[in-house]
Amino acid sequence: MVDAMAAERARLGAQPLPRAVEEALRAVPREAFLPGLPLTEAYDPHQAVVTKRDDERGVALSSVSAPTIVATMLERADLRPGHRVLEVGSGGYNAALIRRLVGVDGQVVSIDIDPEVVARAERCLKSIGVDDVHLAVGDGAHGFAARAPFDRIIVTAGAWDLPPAWEQQLTEDGVLVVPMRIRGLTRCLTLRRAPEEGCWEAVAVDMCGFVRMRGRDEHWEAMPCLHDEDGCQVALRLEDGPEVEEKALREALACEPVTVWSNVEVGAEEPTDSQDLYLASVADRWAQLTAERGAIKAGLVSPISRLGTPALISAEGTGFAYRTLRRCPGRADRWEFGAVGHGPHARATAEHLAHLIGEWDRDHRRGPGPRITLFPATTPDDRLPGGRVVDKRHTRTVLTWTITP
Ligand SMILES: C[S@@+](CC[C@H](N)C(=O)[O-])C[C@H]1O[C@@H](n2cnc3c(N)ncnc32)[C@H](O)[C@@H]1O
Questions:
Q1: Which Pfam family would be a valid example here (predicted)?
Q2: Interval 347-363: pLDDT, tens
């Protein structure tokens, strides 16, 4: 598994994993946290394994995270022997790795909102002889004051906001690694305190996907359904999105679509996550389209991803456009981005989306991505830097893009 991860990093031109993280990954048997799973799956670097599901809502409640993102988060956390670490969201595997990295002088607290998850993690840790991780049941949004302060807080559930307890319980030079939902996109932010009181600066931004954080800070976005036939559902996810008229958008989906191509190409393995973040930053009427397999098969929609494809709501609110992709003629390894518009202003909305994709390609594709800064919710507008401001209960997140030709 570790060799495969190292080879992938080399192929993608990424830094090799820190030696200590690599050693920990080699030492902790992941299979012990996934009893009964075939070894090929237990050691698949990209496989997150769902261990608990909410069947009614059709969402995962708990999982043993994929080794690649676990490794990235451990790398970002820069764990040292002696560190006191709070892990929010248990499973056992990550806690065992942290335990190894912080050594006998360190301390690991792992808290999960679900008592069954904690009991399972405890059993699995015990099976490999780890009995000095402090496991607790509770809402991680409150941190774990009894063992604070922490040098590192590593959150392993998708957070929507930054609760004050994390700030209060982290040391002055502490690091907070947290998968954060920003306008519906989840990015793992590595946060350090900025010089201004109560502010945070993201020093790294990584792609990730996590189960949603539950409890006090749980947050669900609006999701109007545009087509609700079983197995063929199409919906729009509207996190911070505009008010829409569901009936008009359902009618829009039924209209003949208009496709506009952008002339922006992409290679098979080329990361384009900064494009999603850019579109989410600059589009006021931002949305994400989700579609079940049946809807794509039936030709209702042709998005790039079923789970959340960048989309825009038209200015009038009666239509939308989403991103699509086609193979470049005669070149098996190149693809072109496009936009599919639906509704009375289908062409204009699709052209607008294609234009924004072009802007990303011209000005930001080769750049470092946005600067992401978090300010206290009470910060007035005139104290914020320029950029997209995303308001939450406790924080104001600002995404600032600088042109990199
Ligand atoms: C992806 S799993 C954790 C994976 C784990 N760290 C591992 O070693 O693979 C996310 C966990 O977060 C938990 N969770 C969700 N909301 C929480 C909250 N408010 N406080 C603590 N845990 C929470 C879920 O119950 C779930 O078990």
A1: PCMT
A2: 999 999 999 999 999 99
Residue 287 counted as domain residue:
yes
Beta strands in 212-349 (DSSP E): 225-227, 234-237, 258-267, 286-291, 309-313, 320-327, 334-342
Question: Which residues are known catalytic residues?
Answer: 65
Q: Which atom of ligand 1 is nearest to the CA of 210?
A: 1
Where does a domain end: 173, 207, 241? Answer: 207
Q: Residue 368: inside a domain, yes or no?
A: no
Whether residues 78 and 126 fall in one domain: yes
Tokens of 152: 């590192």
Query: Which residue's alpha carbon is nearest to atom 26 within ligand 1?
Result: 62
Distance (angstroms) between ligand 1 centre and the Cα of 403 equals 37
Q: What are the pLDDT digits (tens) for 370-402?
A: 999 999 999 999 999 999 999 999 999 999 999
Do 188 and 41 lie in a common domain?
yes
- Under a CB-based contact definition with an 8 Å cutoff, are residues 279 and 308 in contact? no
- What separation in Å is there between the alpha carbon of 87 and the centre of ligand 1? 9
**Domain containing 35: what range?**
2-207
